[in-house]
């Protein structure tokens, strides 16, 4: 969790309690050390967040304190709503629900005069959109990408050929009618695109990809830039 997100969560934890909250309780919920909580509390107090209390006793947030409203323009709100609507109509259940939660959170955070742009936006997604039909749970693919884990795939090509692959997943791409996994394929020793509706099995492997954070993505970006640059510019 990023530090900025952690500071926000500490405020939320204190906001929902009417009694002092100990550093131990905060640390347990955020899965960090008490020392980290003490440091974060000190930083918040230094930023003039009205927190009272002390180590061993607990901390209270002044009930009158409120964070500034989320300041978005009507265009920014409608852009966020449009994106969330598209995701909700083209994703698996977890991501679709997360997109709907984003809309609810934006509605709760913006000032009252901006809420009509959420309730009745001037733009929208075509109704009737349905997520692609797939055998696998793409949530497993997202988890593999986040944890930098290898995936064991069973893949059926367009010509019907079925192969087993060990891949290093890079990114899960979304198109109007299907999803596409971009990954380094150990069998082909190159980056490959795998349509998710042709993946019949996807299992997280025990091993990680063995590269530093971000390195696989950079290698893919370099591969993509070379592959798709104009022919006359290739050396």
UniProtKB/TrEMBL annotation:
- Specify the WYL domain's residue ranges: 139-202
Q: Give one Pfam family.
A: WYL
- Identify the Gene3D superfamilies for this entry: Winged helix-like DNA-binding domain superfamily/Winged helix DNA-binding domain
Q: What is this protein called?
A: YafY family transcriptional regulator
Q: Which residues are in the Helix-turn-helix type domain?
A: 6-59
